[in-house]
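Retro notes (design track)

What went well: tokenization of the new backbones is finally stable.
What didn't: we kept losing track of which sequence belonged to which structure.
Fix going forward: every design gets posted as structure first, then sequence, in one message. First example under the new rule, 150 residues:
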């Protein structure tokens, strides 16, 4: 599944007739529509000089979490740690920000441009413990490709 999605991601990102935001939205939609356990897919970005993240393109249910302070929740922790964070069971996390009662697990992978953590891709799943190392490598690939258009 992931190799096929990689080629589709490259096609989306190479379409310079669409805006950066539209291409990122298309990636969110593609991932949510094609990975059965990706129930919410979105990008968060550092909000200017503030120590917070701001929601960018996403696919899934609307969220109240459009601004997340650094250090708060899984996304806020990744903004500080610069490392992937896989949460097999969100109920077991003390510093988890609940977006929906249906979410059981989450994976967040930082997005680097020129060595700087400028944002992240965030995936919520309504399935317990679905994420593997293959998901991590795939999402690192997605972010590396997205970084080329930012």
């Amino acid at each position: 599944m992931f190799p096929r999605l990689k080629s589709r991601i490259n096609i989306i990102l190479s379409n310079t007739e669409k805006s950066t935001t539209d291409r990122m939205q298309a990636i969110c939609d593609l991932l949510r529509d094609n990975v059965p356990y990706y129930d919410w897919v979105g990008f968060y970005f550092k909000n200017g000089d503030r120590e917070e993240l701001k929601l960018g393109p996403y696919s899934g249910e609307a969220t109240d979490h459009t601004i997340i302070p650094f250090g708060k929740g899984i996304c806020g922790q990744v903004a500080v740690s610069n490392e992937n964070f896989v949460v097999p069971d969100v109920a077991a996390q003390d510093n988890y920000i609940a977006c929906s009662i249906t979410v059981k697990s989450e994976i967040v992978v930082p997005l680097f441009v020129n060595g700087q953590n400028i944002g992240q891709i965030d995936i919520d799943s309504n399935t317990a413990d679905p994420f593997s190392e293959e998901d991590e490598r795939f999402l690192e690939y997605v972010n590396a490709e997205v970084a080329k258009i930012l």
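Added context from the reviewer: The beta strands are 40-46, 52-59, 67-69, 85-87, 105-113, 116-125.
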